[in-house]
Amino acid sequence: MGGKITFVTSNFNMKTTIFAAILLFSTNVFSQQITFFPANKAKDVNPDTHLAITFPFDVKVGTQGFVRVFDSKTGKQIDALDLSIPAGPLQPDNVRKQNADYLQTPYKYENSGFTNKNTTPGTPSGGALRDTAGIYQLTIIGGFTDGFHFYPIIVKEKTATIYLHNNLLEYDKTYYITVDYGVITSENEKINAIKRGEWTFSTKKKAPAPESRKLTVSANGSGDFNTVQGAIDFIPDFSSEKWEVIIKNGDYEELVYFRNKTNVTLRGESRDGVKIHYANCETFNPHPINLKTNEVPGSFPSRRAAFAADNCNDLRFENLTIQTTMYGQAEGLLLSGERNYLKNVHIIGSGDALQVNGSAYFVDCLIDGDGDSVLGRGAAFFHNCTLNSGGPFMWIRNTDANHGNVFLGCTFKGKRQQSVLARSPKNGGKTYPFAEAVLINCKLENIPDEGWGNIYENSPGLHFWEYNSQTVDGQIIDVSKRHPMSRQLDAAEDAEIIKNYSNPRFVLQWNDLQF
To answer: Which residue intervals of 48-120 are DSSP H helices?
Structure first.
């Protein structure tokens, strides 16, 4: 799907002279081609579409003017993006961290039917105070009314992709777009405004038939939805029916957050071909001024991951890459809920790459992080996975209510000498005496001799255990210098422990495990 506007001269001298005169007062763009997505006058467009303009030269995001969307029939303004408002904070707020605490009663997950159409972004939920730390772009995603900071326009070389506020476009509508002067700029070219009538499109007549419960996502607009978020938003909360979302190969640069979803499979066409990513982190989308997030059950949800499935059960992810492109406390994936399963998924983040709060099973997955790459309170079972980390591989925070992280036949590759398997230090006065990280038949590369990092000494229930750790070429590792609070399991004496921890049903407490 695409559309081009081409301005050309005529063979008639008068028309050529007039066109040349216009150029003197207008812009070099008018002698070139620009491409719209959706194309001008396009039909059957998915309402969740992003907008894009491709120029014949490199462009930048401006700092003034508006992008506006109007209903062509009524003339009503449907959406507006003000480019004078910054996307979000870029420096950490240390005062916010000092003044926050956990909720005294569990966060109430309301129905995710709140959208930008019926609720003002920034409306507090769950005891949070309204954030007045700065004026930034804000949109509601996945029913989270507190909202997310976001980039209204993202430029990649010659293409400017415009991100409208979520869920405002509707089926069976015709829209026109205007783009003010200064919204998109260039070093060497002057870019004029896009005015009424120059860019219009019509959406599909109706939504997919819900009874099929099978949806297709394609970034080029050829599926039921253009975005992963659009497909997930279509699925009802707490569905007892099974839903399948097929994601075609493509680049999905979008901030994904959803809650209250059950029995949903997200299946990509190929792991390397489906890339879902966004530049998000704790600094850009911090916790509320008064509330900490995620570490204890019932706490306020986090907004810092590129992709978050929150209060969701019985999800299945297959053949995807999920990534944050920010550095810092920036998960690629944040998963909260029970009985969630991931197969052949590549998760890329910083510190932390993956956060797991609730039971989850990972098989044939690849996890890349910069340190504390696997965070959360578990339980999580990893089978035949590869983990790459530039610091500690994990900082597990489970209590005695459930198991922690267990790795069977996995590979750990350290990027630096600091790449210990796990750590469990005192954290702002809080300790994790039941932290559990168990490695069985795993291969290790570039792991320091002590193996395990800083551990708070008063942790009697801690399980930092290994059995049969080898080098990547199959040689038995010398574990004589391992941390004294860790333990090497013995094939004979600990046969029952090894057997139990090799069984995902035992670790996850899934009696009906069928994967």
So the answer is: 94-99
Strand-by-strand arrangement of the 153-156 sheet: 3-6, 33-37, 51-54, 159-162, 153-156
Widest pairwise Cα distance in the chain: 97
Handedness of CA 468, 471, 474, 480 (dihedral sign): negative
Mean pLDDT of the chain: 91
Identity of the residue numbered 306: A
Half-sphere exposure of 383 (CA within 13 A, CB side): 16
Query: Which 3 state secondary structure label does DSSP give 202?
Result: strand
Read off φ and ψ for residue 210, nearest 5 degrees: -65, -25
In sequence order, the 6+-apart residues with CB closer than 8 A to the CB of 8 are none
pTM comes to 0.92
Interatomic CA distance for residues 425 and 436, integer angstroms: 13
**Residue 225 tokens, joined:** 């939805």
What is the rounded CA–CA span in Å between residue 487 and residue 466? 6
Q: How far is CA 22 from CA 19, 30, 179, 391, in A?
A: 5, 9, 20, 59
Strands (E), 26-143: 33-37, 42-45, 51-54, 60-61, 66-71, 77-82, 139-141
CA-wise closest residue to 315 among 400, 232, 420, 191: 232
Q: Is the pLDDT of residue 513 over 90?
A: no
d(CA 393, CA 374) in angstroms, rounded, equals 6
On the 0-12 / 13-18 / 19+ scale of CB atoms within 10 A, 52 is middle
Terminal-residue alpha carbon distance, the chain = 39
- Residue 195's SS3 state is coil
Q: What is the pLDDT of residues 468-493, one digit of tens each?
A: 999 999 999 999 999 999 999 999 99
Look at residue 450 in the predicted model and tell me its pLDDT: 95
pLDDT in the model for residue 515: 58
The region of weakest confidence among 336-345, 402-411, 424-433 is 424-433
Question: What is the phi/psi pair of residue 401, to 5°?
Answer: -75, -20
> In the prediction, which pLDDT does 351 show?
83
Please determine, for residue 6, whether its predicted confidence score (pLDDT) is greater than 60. Answer: no
Indicate the Cα dihedral angle 494, 400, 437, 424, nearest 10°. Answer: -130
For the chain, which domains are there?
3-85+151-203 (2.60.40.1220), 270-508 (2.160.20.10)
